[in-house]
Write a structure and sequence with these properties.
The complex is a heterodimer.
Chain A: H1 9-18, H2 25-37, E1 41-44, H3 51-62, E2 65-70, H4 77-80, E3 82-84, H5 86-95, H6 101-108, E4 114-116, H7 118-124, E5 129-134, H8 141-153, E6 155-158, E7 162-165, E8 171-176, H9 184-188, E9 191-194, H10 200-210, H11 216-230, H12 240-253, H13 260-270, H14 274-283
Parallel strand pairs in A: 1-8, 1-9, 2-5, 5-8
Antiparallel strand pairs in A: 3-4, 6-7
Chain B: H1 11-27, H2 34-47, H3 52-63, H4 70-80, H5 97-113, H6 116-130, E1 132-133, E2 141-142, H7 144-151, H8 157-167, H9 180-207, H10 209-215, H11 231-239, H12 241-260, H13 266-273, E3 294-300, H14 306-318, E4 325-331, E5 335-337, H15 339-345, H16 352-359, H17 371-381, E6 390-395, H18 407-416, E7 419-424, H19 438-444, E8 446-449, H20 453-463
Helix pairs in contact in B: 1-4, 2-3, 5-6, 5-8, 6-7, 6-9, 7-9, 9-10, 12-14, 17-18
The chains are: A alpha/beta, B alpha/beta.
């Protein structure tokens, strides 16, 4: 069963680009396959390379509705899947004094008293949907078990109501920062995509697109410096979002070309650890002030 | 399957190629199920064979489960889905010195332009022209080493730099000028990798793909034997320390949380049950004092096992905030504390080994490792480092070069410590052979084989105290 959003790999790349998301061939191919095979997409990669942004871009392109499940330590079934509205059930029981037990029972476990959470919402949705399970690695192992049924068959079992099948398969994206190894069972059900730092040429296009006022030559220099920093084995290498921040900073400062002073003064935008800044200053031959 | 032309014209051929690729990946330890192979087939059908990079990404998306597998996958992929239109081995390339000069010239041009397709063509040409050896049908082959040592792409640096400078706008010194050399070096390294791929492909054509896929493709870095790892592999391993430490820290935190749930405090539960007529309605849990354990690392840093010791030291240093105290000792035949060196060395891990050997006093009369003397000295001088809350890790191959193993000293340490674990980078079948006294030590403390980074990660995650 396909979600049927795209017709070809080029189609993916073009339409994503139209929303301002420039996809590498790897990203475009995998998104196309996720759409065509109807399988969830597991996206890994360092922070700030656009994992979550990818899901948002797909949502925008396809005009679908975005359902987002943000994972955190301790997220559970009642936060992820569904919950019974206990307060409303109690009200219903109090209101219906005098009716028989059977009537009440069948009634309080009906649709009206069900609070759907993101996973159930996405499954039951009639319109095209993008389901984003963000930072899956932050959730506990038990939640992975919960995801397995949802992701492999796109169905949810509610004991009182029975099994709910997806009428329309949601386009599913899971993101992970790899702070915990996800289980093999989960990985098996997904297409795997690692988004790394982009190639120089692609990153230049991203910077030019996101920071329109920036001089093309300066953009090229910015990307080259960032590339050199990434080759330096730092504690936290600058990501695409940092590159864009840096380009914006330079634009705001009115710099029309890179020189030693401005690089030294704005290095903090790119690097977030003091030891990295010291190391980078040495690597780039900056005079340490 | 309906391939849209390209290198694999018929469906049966494509299926055979795919299953061959999967089998080769499985031989490298990838867990790929039949379901995933079917998905890979469906993916190939969806993207077609028109563009090779799309085929690569489609297979990677369906067959891989982690980024660590990517390098092995790329090498195997290049064997099973080689570049279309590459000249066959029969095609002759010139191999005279004049051809070499011409080739170097064109290479400099391609490096200047950073043109990937041209570099691929040149790599094929270079291996064809300068990488062949032998003349008999059984003994000949293709060698990337031979190609590269004759072509010597690294010497083109100055030439490429000049050309790049000439094409750049002549506006005086730009800040990015200083990055130029490193960028060119990276491009040259990329070309060397292309040559290696091409040589592997040609050998595969000659000897059969399956054999080469098994032998000539290097495994993932975390599976490399510590004792056999080369310098480049150790560098690569070092880069995995931080992600690994983060993973272990998450695992430790989870274990600690679970452990903190505690056990039933029977006395207080029964006392509480008196108010409910002896029925323990409300169980009382024993409280745990939040107290982090101490860790002592005792490492043999002599030549043979140095790589293993350094990797573990860096890993433990990266995990230091998980413990109330971490102390690291190194020895060859004398013991010295190196905790401070490691904390400072985390910023520059590559030079760590040299600094330990230079700045700590580790050798006495000779340079060979002597476990007995070192353990004795540790028990004498640093006994106060080990207490009832300390977990001690000893790292080493237990090869004492014939000296007295000094079991009493280890027994003393084991008695004082909460736990002693010995990690031995040799496989158990070698314990006790030659000058190894591993079995004697293994009777006193728990000894475990730990041969590569993957095993170390698993052991540390399991053995570290919470």
């Amino acid at each position: 069963m396909t979600t049927g959003f795209f017709t070809s790999v080029d189609d993916v790349a073009e339409r994503l680009a139209a929303t301002g998301y420039l996809a590498s061939p790897a990203v475009a191919t995998t998104v196309f396959l996720a759409d065509r095979l109807g399988k969830p997409l597991l996206v890994e990669g360092p922070a700030g390379v656009g994992k979550t942004q990818l899901a948002k871009a797909v949502t925008e392109v396809t005009g679908a509705r975005l359902v987002r499940l943000q994972c955190y330590e301790g997220v559970d079934e009642s936060r992820a899947l569904y919950e019974w509205n206990h307060a409303k059930q109690l009200l219903r029981i109090t209101a219906g004094r005098g009716e028989s037990w059977d009537e009440t029972r069948t009634d309080v476990f009906g649709e009206e008293f069900l609070l759907p959470r993101p996973l159930l919402t996405a499954i039951r949705s009639e319109e095209p949907t993008v389901l984003l399970v963000d930072e899956t690695d932050k959730a506990d192992v038990e939640v992975e078990g919960l995801l397995l049924e949802v992701l492999s068959d796109f169905q949810v079992t509610v004991p009182e109501l029975g099994t709910i099948m997806a009428t329309r398969r949601p386009f599913t994206v899971l993101t992970s920062n790899a702070s915990r190894e996800l289980s093999e069972a989960l990985r098996r059900r997904c297409l795997f995509l690692h988004i790394g730092f982009p190639e120089e040429e692609l990153e230049r296009r991203i910077v030019t697109l996101k920071v329109p006022g920036l001089d093309a030559e300066l953009a090229a220099s910015v990307v080259r410096v960032v590339g050199a920093l990434r080759a330096m084995d730092l504690r936290k290498a600058p990501s695409v979002s940092e590159t864009i921040d840096w380009a914006r900073t330079l634009l705001a400062l009115g710099a029309d070309r890179l020189d030693e002073r401005i690089v030294r003064e704005t290095l903090g935008v790119l690097l977030k650890h003091q030891e990295d800044i010291v190391k980078a200053a040495a690597g780039l031959d900056l005079d340490v002030a | 399957m309906s391939p849209a032309g390209g290198p694999s014209p018929d469906a049966a051929g494509a299926a055979a190629r795919l299953t061959g690729l999967v089998a080769a990946l499985r031989a490298h330890g990838f867990g790929i199920g039949t379901g995933e192979t079917v998905d890979a087939g469906l993916a190939l059908e969806a993207v077609g064979f028109a563009e090779r990079e799309l085929v690569r990404e489609a297979l990677a998306a369906t067959l891989l489960h982690g980024e660590g597998q990517r390098t092995v996958f790329d090498q195997v992929f290049d064997l099973y889905f080689p570049l279309g239109g590459a000249p066959g081995p029969a095609e002759a390339h010139g191999s005279t010195p004049a051809d070499l000069a011409a080739l170097r010239d064109r290479l400099a041009e391609a490096l200047t332009a950073g043109d990937g397709a041209a570099l691929d063509r040149l790599a094929a040409e270079a291996v064809g022209g300068f990488g062949g050896y032998g003349s008999g049908p059984e003994s000949d082959g293709w060698s990337s080493y031979r190609t590269l040592s004759r072509l010597r792409p690294e010497t083109l640096l100055a030439r490429v730099r000049e050309r790049l400078r000439a094409t750049a706008a002549a506006e005086g010194p730009e800040f990015t000028e200083r990055l130029l050399d490193d960028e060119i070096r990276r491009r040259i390294e990329g070309f060397r990798e292309r040559v290696r791929t091409e040589a592997r492909r040609r050998v595969a054509e000659r000897q059969g793909r399956d054999r080469v896929a098994r032998r000539a493709v290097a495994g993932t870095a975390d599976g490399v034997d510590f004792l056999l790892a080369g310098r480049a592999q150790l560098d690569e391993l070092r880069r995995t320390v931080r992600p690994l430490a983060r993973k272990l820290a998450t695992r430790l935190a989870a274990r600690r949380r679970r452990a903190a749930r505690g056990e039933i405090d029977l006395r207080r539960t029964l006392r509480g049950s008196l108010s409910t007529g002896g029925v323990p309605v409300r169980p009382v849990l024993r409280r745990r004092r939040p107290r982090r354990p101490e860790l002592v690392l005792l490492c043999d840093v002599s030549g043979s096992v140095a790589g293993f010791a350094q990797f573990t030291m860096l890993l433990v240093q990266a995990l230091h905030d998980q413990f109330s105290r971490v102390r690291v000792f190194a020895f060859v035949n004398r013991v010295d504390e190196v905790t401070g060196l490691i904390a400072r060395g985390a910023a520059d891990p590559a030079a760590l080994g040299d600094r330990i050997l230079a700045e700590a006093e580790l050798t006495g009369w000779h340079g060979q490792s002597d476990y007995g003397t070192a353990l004795g000295e540790f028990a004498d001088r640093y006994a106060e480092a080990v207490g009832p809350r300390t977990v001690v890790f000893v790292l080493g191959d237990a090869r004492t070069n014939g000296a007295d193993p000094n079991l009493a000293a280890l027994r003393l340490v084991a008695d004082r410590a909460r736990r002693v674990h010995w990690l031995n980078p040799e496989q158990p079948s070698l314990w006790g052979t030659g000058d190894s006294v591993a079995p004697a030590y293994a009777e006193l403390v728990e000894m475990r084989p730990c041969r590569n980074a993957r095993q170390l990660g698993e052991l540390i995650g399991r053995l570290l105290p919470v």
